[in-house]
Structure formats: C-alpha cells, structure tokens
Write a structure and sequence with these properties.
- It contains 25 helices and six strands.
- With 543 residues, the protein is mainly α.
- α22 links the parallel β1 and β2.
- α2 runs antiparallel to α5 and α5 runs parallel beside α8.
- The N terminus is likely disordered.
C-alpha cells in the first residue's frame, strides 16, 4: 500500500507530504494507543489479570476460528457446521493465526492493534496531503478515530477495525485511482474483501454501482458489482448447501426482512418508520453528517451542472444514501460498531470540504454559520459517544468476565462435553467442548425459524424446546430466563440464579441455570456450590 502513495506524489512534494504524514502518524499513534492502553489496564485490573473482551460476540469468532483451525469444522462447536459468524473472512483469518501461533484468546486484540496502526497511518497520509501541516493533520486524524470510537472497536476484539481499515484504503485509493494504477488496484481489491467482512457492504457496492451508472462509467459499474458481490455469492452458495440458508444465521435473525406477501405493508412500515424516520439511533449517529453533506450538495446545484454535482460530491452522496439504507435494513444499536465504517467515510469526505475550518477557525465559523452549527452538533455527538464508550471500555470486560466467562469456567470444570442450552454462546463455546443448542438462533439452525424477523418466544417455541431437548438428551441450560418470556419448558428445573452488579454490556444481570434432566438436579446444585465463583457473582441456589 505504500506504493499507492509513493507512486502518486513525485520528488520533493512526495518527501514533504510524507514527512507531514509520518510525523502526524507518530503523534496520532501516541495519543490513540495511550488512551487504549489506559482502558486496557483498567479492564485487566478487574478481570483477575487477564484481558477479557467487552462483548461476548468476540468469543463467537474465536470459537469458530478455533474449531476450524483445530478440527476443520466451520461451527460454534467441534461437532457440526453452524453459520454463526457474520464476518467469514475475519473468522477465517483468526483461524489461520491460531493454526500458526496456537490457540490464544488474545489473538483478536493483536490483530486489531495491527490494523488500527494501518488506519492511523493511511489517515495521516490522506489528511496530510490535504491540510499540509502536522497540527491540523493530527487534529483531523484524532477527530476521525474518536468520532468512530476506534479505541472501543480495537478493545472489543471484533471485525470492525478490519472493516474500517478496508474503507479507509478504499476511499484513499478512490481519489487517486485515475492518476495511479496501484491506487486503482487498491480500490478494487478492497471491494473484493469488504463483503466477507460485513454483509452490509452490499449496500455500498450497489450504491457505488448506481452512482457510476448515473455518470455513465460502465466499466466501473461492472467491476464494482462483480468484485463486490462475487465473494458473497460464492459464500452464500456454500452456506445454502450446508444448512439451507443463503446468509449466516446472525444476518437472518437480526436483519430486516422484505418479502412480497400479505405482510408487505407491515414490513414497509418497519423499514421506513421504525428503522428509519422514527429510529432514535439514526438521529443520534447519522442525521448530522447527512445534513452536512446535503448542504454542500445543495450549494453545488446552484452553480454546477447535474453531472458535475454528482462527480464533485460522489462519495458524499454515496455515504448519505448508505447511512439511510443501513438504518432501514441493518442495525444502529450495537455500541457504535455497525455504523463505524460509514462515519469513517463521512469524515474522510467531509473534512477536505471543511479544511477552511482548520486553516482559520474564527473566520470560518463567522462566515459559515449554518455549517458551524452542524459541526458543533457532530462535536457534541463525539462527546456523547465518548461518554458511552468510556463506560463500556471501563467495565464491559468486567461484565463479560463475571457472567459469560464464569459460566464457561463452570461448564469446563463439570460439564465440558455435555449438551448445553444457552443464549450468549461465545465464551461458553470457546472455553469448552460442549454440544450446543442456542435459543437465540445464532449458533443453531434449528432455532432460526423462531428468531427470524425479531420473533418472540411463544408456546410453539416452548414445545419445541421441550421436545428437542428430551429427544436429544440435553443436560442443562444456562440462559436469561427473561428471554424465554414465561415459556420455560415444564420439565426444566431451576438449580440456581447467578447475578452480577451493574449491567453494561450483558443483556441481563441474572442468568438462570436449569437442569433439563431432572435426575441430575441434585448433582448440578452440588457442582454450583463447589465452584469457586468470582466474588462479584451472587449465587442463589433454588430450594
């Protein structure tokens, strides 16, 4: 990727910008990793000296990567296929690293550290080229990484850092692709990888292709669609052969469904009103960048032709439409992780248009009052997200350690190869060799039909659980009782309740432990008493 930049800027100019970019990178690196290190230390001090990820989802990727690396099984357990990962390429890359370096639960953290460095480097080069001074460049880089709460994504141990990195490369190369062959290759190669990092990238491919079609760049239309959608198509075909669904379970369960049947009016209401116009999360994270973009586009319409407006605001339009599509069909309620790639794009496209703010702040805010209001709104948004992220980075790992990791250690000691029903499946799958039934549908295709389109548990699901667990001789369940909404199978006998303190990144404070085989209830209670639970876990044995 260094060649993309080196080939583009010759001679003295290249040396000058490289110096600005490199110095800005080193300063941004120092700030970013100092902040991240402080939160890392804070977390480790609360988890008995071992770093625990902020979300259980990180352990889903680890469990699948471990099983693929060690047992050649693409699944949550070593026993059968399950399409649980919504980021197949990220999970596969972790499996390669596990195969090379051994099974180590810190590998995702190291992986994210490497790609966080890449993000900082390319942002520094990109902004340095535009702002032409170290202080201004560092300010732009730090605004971007804290606006997208990159430290949170880094410490979460998930795929979003790699996704952001690919979008940074993609935009970096987009503006250089006509002058530099390496940049053109970088633009298309990043598209090739995006779809298998997060399936929401399909929105980006389609919107890009439509925009290229409008300005009559047909080669680009074909390449974007073929390179973007081809890997997804291949994976979906493989997935369908395995379990009868084209997409991973998480996409089916969490995604918005649109089918042209008798429910289409209700589905359109969900998409347009619930997910978009009445979605408070959209107004928290997406509306201000979109409005700021619309101001620049509207101004250009006054003085430029339609085609020129599209060409000059190409990515502004793309990312505005992408934010709207993402809100309607995907998710904006995941601790700022799902929309981070879009906000990265907004920063990289809007900051060059706002460079006057960096050169003469006072003059700019006096001259551009409306724009300044929206900039201030985005600054407030940054502070809001920072306050939420602080709470998560400070105590999220503690939550997961006290609930999911403690449950996993208990299972590992007493029920390591037993048949277990669960709902948070990451840590309990990664740290054990259990046979799993996931009531939420992410790790078990059998329960997907009950969870599709945000379905609620009912008597039908209760009957299924009772029958399936009896026929397949399941031993115990560790679940959120509230999730079952009163539909606990009658032959499940509660053994204990495990309660932690403040809820930060877990769904509930209390986890219930059930004996599915009534004959084992007494032994289960004895094992719960024997286990050395963390001091912050309140264990209540059911009498």
């Amino acid at each position: 990727m260094m060649l993309i930049f080196d080939d583009f800027i010759p001679g003295f100019k290249m040396k000058s910008f490289r110096n600005i970019g490199l110095r800005s990178f080193l300063m941004s690196f120092a700030v970013f990793f100092t902040v991240s290190l402080l939160y890392y230390i804070s977390s480790v001090l609360k988890t008995d000296g071992h770093y625990v990820y902020l979300l259980d989802d990180a352990y889903i990727h680890l469990a699948m990567a471990k099983n693929f690396a060690l047992y050649e099984v693409w699944g949550m357990t070593r026993y059968q296929f399950s399409s649980t990962s919504s980021s197949p390429l990220f999970t596969y890359m972790l499996s390669v690293l596990i195969e090379i370096f051994g099974d180590n639960d810190q590998i995702p953290l190291y992986f994210n550290a490497a790609f966080s460095i890449g993000i900082l480097y390319f942002l520094s080069i990109y902004y340095g080229d535009i702002l032409k001074e170290v202080k201004r460049t560092v300010l732009a880089v730090l605004f971007t990484v804290f606006f997208i709460v990159l430290p949170l994504h880094f410490l979460s141990g998930m795929e979003h850092v790699f996704q952001i990195f690919l979008f940074v490369i993609n935009i970096f190369c987009f503006y250089r692709r006509d002058q530099n062959k390496a940049a053109e290759y970088g633009f298309y190669f990043s598209l090739l990888l995006m779809g298998l990092i997060r399936f929401e990238s399909m929105f980006y491919f389609v919107i890009l292709a439509v925009m290229f079609a409008v300005i009559k760049k047909w080669k680009e239309v074909v390449l974007v669609l073929v390179l973007g959608l081809m890997p997804i198509t291949v994976f979906c075909a493989f997935n369908y052969q395995q379990d009868g669904y084209f997409f991973p379970n998480s996409v089916i369960v969490k995604g918005t469904k649109l089918s042209f049947d008798s429910n289409i009016v209700y589905q359109l209401k969900v998409i347009l009103l619930d997910n978009f116009l009445l979605n408070i999360s959209f107004y928290k994270v997406g509306v201000f960048p979109v409005l700021l973009s619309l101001i620049f586009i509207y101004r250009d319409f006054k003085t430029k032709t339609f085609k020129k407006v599209l060409e000059d605001n190409f990515l502004l339009i793309v990312f505005s439409l992408l934010m709207i599509c993402h809100s309607m069909f995907a998710d904006l309620k995941g601790l700022f992780r799902y929309e981070a790639y879009i906000l990265t794009g907004f920063c990289m496209v809007l900051i060059p248009k706002l460079k006057g703010l960096f050169f003469d702040f006072t003059h700019y805010i006096k001259k551009e009052r409306i724009i300044s209001v929206f900039i201030a709104a985005n600054a407030v948004l940054l502070i809001y997200k920072g306050s939420v992220a602080h709470k998560v980075m400070n105590n999220g790992g503690k939550n997961i350690y006290e609930q999911q990791v403690q449950s996993a250690k208990f299972l590992n000691l007493f029920y390591n190869s037993s048949k277990v029903v669960a709902n948070d499946i990451g840590a309990v799958s990664y740290y054990t060799d259990i046979h799993l039934l996931d009531i939420a549908g992410l790790g078990s295709v059998e329960t997907v039909p009950f969870n599709e389109n945000k379905g609620k548990f009912d008597k039908r699901f209760e009957d299924f659980l009772a029958r399936y667990c009896f026929e397949n001789k399941y031993d115990l369940a560790i679940v959120y009782e509230g999730w079952l909404q009163g539909h606990v199978p009658p032959h499940w006998k509660k053994a204990a309740v495990l309660k932690i303190g403040e809820k930060i990144t877990v769904a509930r404070q209390e986890v219930s432990v059930y004996s599915i085989n009534e004959k084992n209830l007494v032994q289960l209670k004895q094992n719960i008493r024997k286990f050395n639970w963390n001091k912050n876990v309140t264990v209540t044995i059911t009498e």
